[in-house]
Amino acid sequence: MSGSPPPRLAVFDMDGTLLDSLPDLAASADRLLKSYGLTGIAPEAVRAMIGDGVAALVRRLLAHAGDDAKGIDMHEATARYLADYTPRAVELSRPFPGTLHALEQLRAAGWRMAVCTNKPVAAARRIVAALELEDWFDAIGGGDSFPVRKPDPAHLLGTIGLAGGQAARAIMVGDHHNDVLAAEGAAVRSVFARWGYGRPEMEAGATVGADSMAELPHIAARLLPP
Ligand SMILES: O=C(O)COP(=O)(O)O
Ligand SMILES: [Mg+2]
């Protein structure tokens, strides 16, 4: 009895990989600073602050504001950011070009899909629902779904487990060194999303890099043949 191998699983990071979320993240960042009477911030400055979750983003925003932000409570600011961002997370954000087509092609080839994001899972679920993408993903592992988050491999392994997959039959697609490191630690093949918000040097350690979503089905098939 040989039995067929378990289905292949493609795990996607969200911000900067599936979703061009910078416009909404940056709009909330700008509103947060202004709500404290601080100078606002442009999207390009926010781009490099994304990838380590909301608390890290808020900490970087307050550091960016310098001495004027001294005395602002981090916990209160993070709660304020989330209260603003969560209901408005898809006002401007859209999947990157070619995303839906890539998901269709992967599914047609028998792949399952999941999301592994450092965003709080409530925000991630809301975004997936608002974009009517629920049917594509077997699991969503958020930044608060497990005791640890990316770059800790347990976040990726936990998400793979939720989706009913296996590390040896999974790939991780992400735009940040947190994604690459989590995949490396979990012994999962990885695709660095060059279209996202990471810097080129973050690709080091990835199995392969991709320039666009359109390349993904082909790359995935090469990394993990059926
Ligand atoms: O919220 C963040 O900072 C990063 O989210 P991501 O893991 O989906 O890129
Ligand atoms: Mg990302």
TrEMBL record:
The keyword Metal-binding applies. Mg(2+) binds at residues 13, 15, 175. GO terms for molecular function: hydrolase activity. The keyword Metal-binding applies. PANTHER family: PHOSPHOGLYCOLATE PHOSPHATASE. Pathway: Organic acid metabolism; glycolate biosynthesis; glycolate from 2-phosphoglycolate: step 1/1. InterPro entries: HAD-like_hydrolase_sf, HAD-like_sf, HAD-SF_hydro_IA, HAD_2, HAD_sf, PGP-like_dom2, PGPase_prok. The active site is at residue 13. NCBIfam families: HAD-SF-IA-v1. This is Phosphoglycolate phosphatase. It comes from Nguyenibacter vanlangensis. Its EC number is 3.1.3.18. Its cofactor is Mg(2+). Belongs to the HAD-like hydrolase superfamily. CbbY/CbbZ/Gph/YieH family. Keywords: Carbohydrate metabolism, Hydrolase, Magnesium, Metal-binding. It catalyses: 2-phosphoglycolate + H2O = glycolate + phosphate. SUPFAM superfamilies: HAD-like. Coiled coil: none annotated. Specifically catalyzes the dephosphorylation of 2-phosphoglycolate. Is involved in the dissimilation of the intracellular 2-phosphoglycolate formed during the DNA repair of 3'-phosphoglycolate ends, a major class of DNA lesions induced by oxidative stress.
